[in-house]
Amino acid sequence: MEYTELSAYDVPPGEVTAWIPTAAPASWVDDDRRLSHNHELHLDTAEAGSWIGSIMRLSGPLDHDALGLALRAWIGRHEALRGTVEETAAGRRRRVVAPADVSVTTTVLGRFDAEDARGCVSDFLADHIDPSAWPYVVFATVADADGFTLVFGADHGVMDAYSQLLWFEEIASLYERALAGEPFSDLAAATTGSHLDHSAAERVTGDEMSLDSESVRVWRDWLTGPDGRLRFADFPVTGITDVPASASPLPQASLSQWLGDPHQARVLGELCKSAGVSFQAGMMGAMAYVLRAQHGVERMRFVAPMHTRYTAEHAAAVGWYVGLVPVTLDISGASTLPEVAVRVQAALAETKPLVPQPFARVADLLGVTDAPHFVVTFVDTRFIAGAERWNSWDARTLRAPVRADDEVYLWLVRDRDGLNVSTRYPETVAAERVVRDLIGGMTDLFDEIARPETASLEGTA
Known about the structure:
Elements: E1 3-4, E2 14-22, E3 29-31, H1 37-45, E4 52-59, H2 64-77, E5 83-88, E6 91-96, E7 103-112, H3 114-128, E8 137-144, E9 147-154, H4 161-179, H5 184-187, H6 195-207, H7 214-223, E10 252-260, H8 262-275, H9 279-295, E11 299-307, E12 322-330, H10 337-351, H11 359-366, E13 374-380, H12 390-393, E14 396-399, E15 408-415, E16 418-426, H13 429-449
Parallel strand pairs: 1-14, 13-15
Antiparallel strand pairs: 2-7, 2-8, 3-6, 4-9, 4-14, 5-6, 8-9, 10-16, 11-12, 15-16
Helix pairs in contact: 2-4, 8-9, 8-10, 9-10, 9-13
């Protein structure tokens, strides 16, 4: 599974149709469940046109009635997608609509060649996703004689990476069931918990936090720089964020690349097991190992997002189930990859208890206005429902283009097809060189540890 911008996906030529959820104003009702601090911060800071989503290819002629039913059912099954927030004189108010009251309207946008179809879909998603206005998710199809491509874009406030990945199997199954004639009431029956309940519980957790809370103290110490300012740590290689002066941040470069095949992933897994660490620690350890080999970096600090899907009822729900933790990694004296991975494991374990403590509340208490500069995420997608069918669907998770001068994001993925990294970074010559060297170094490292002559798993590079 790759995580890229839409520009990196081969959208076919065909007829582009927009699918937009609608609901009559009278169908909305007030809901007293409170917004999470994270959602509040998102509403305060997110910009219209920023979205995440997924895209897939389905065979056979597009059945408009069946797809419309499936899309309505998907929204109906997940309360996060049929709730909204209204600004009132008394503050923000949550409102919801019943599954049966959600409709989906279609508009044919035109018939295009491949390049123009992709541009049309990209513009449509950017124009229709707004964190302050429902619907928070819209869809598009590109249909031709052999089948159709289906894509959605959603506001990040109601969607995380697992939601993007779970969508493939769920929407394909709903479409298959709709084609078979199942009624809407059966298709829309909820099988998971509600993210709105999760948000309300998270709000209680946040409200209980104060300046004296341990989580707030840890974040304050981590964010405080030599000058006393509260600021996120930069990527540890200097110079890559030196961008030309401009009135607004420049567009970021985006890259996705495979680092290793399934065999190399298994070898890395054995190395991690023998060292007593998680695969996540092994992947992040490889990143740190290579950065030191290439740039002499032995100490680095980054933010690590981790999921908050702690109960079975929320495991397959759509929503923003993410917490942030600050990580300080020192690998001085750790000479092999297993030794570096052990350091990573310890660094992650030190701050993992902070995951349920919403960073948005920390930011509110400390007055933090800065955003993370260096973020490293790990996701294991192998056991997500439908993963065995992703290749047949040309499935891909997507993110919108981003403008930022000082951000470096790495998404490290273990997949049924091996190891992948997706990244965005400043579009500078220096950043391009550093990021491509890092990816090349990690690829070489995974290749090396998988060779028979290095099967002792000591990890040299």
